[in-house]
């Protein structure tokens, strides 16, 4: 069981790493978000930063097999899925710059990874019950 928790921790780490390479102005994300108001822009950034920090905490909790690690990781996976899905659907954040093909590919991969993470930790939770 501990091996599965280590793999789950690595999957969370992979998910947060895939998120961090998509920062605006980075190697993949090239859209212009200057039209977003300050509150919306910084609120969304604060949410993404918090998601990243909580993901690192979840990595640790999985490694020590904390009793709430599975539930926290499931919630994180759902939040990753929502973030990527609303962006792929063009709902938020809106930008006058079109999403590039590499960005779209990364977001599809990241969405798939979020689903895989959720299913993996859910299976661990059921196996441990």
TrEMBL record:
What highest taxon heads this organism's lineage?
Bacteria
- Cited Pfam families: DUF8051
Task: Describe the location of the DUF8051 domain by residue ranges.
Answer: 6-122
Any idea which UniProt keywords this protein has? Membrane, Transmembrane, Transmembrane helix
The residue ranges crossing the membrane are 6-27, 39-63, 69-92, 104-127
Record-linked InterPro entries? DUF8051
**Name of this chain's protein:** DUF8051 domain-containing protein
């Amino acid at each position: 069981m501990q091996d599965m928790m280590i793999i789950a921790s690595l999957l969370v780490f992979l998910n947060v790493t895939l998120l961090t390479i998509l920062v605006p102005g980075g190697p993949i994300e090239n859209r212009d978000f200057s039209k977003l108001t300050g509150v919306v822009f910084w609120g969304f950034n604060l949410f993404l930063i918090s998601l990243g920090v909580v993901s690192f905490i979840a990595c640790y909790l999985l490694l020590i097999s904390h009793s709430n690690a599975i539930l926290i990781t499931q919630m994180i996976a759902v939040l990753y899925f929502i973030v990527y899905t609303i962006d792929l659907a063009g709902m938020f954040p809106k930008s006058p710059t079109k999403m590039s093909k590499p960005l779209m590919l990364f977001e599809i991969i990241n969405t798939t990874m979020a689903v895989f993470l959720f299913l993996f930790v859910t299976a661990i939770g059921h196996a441990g019950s």
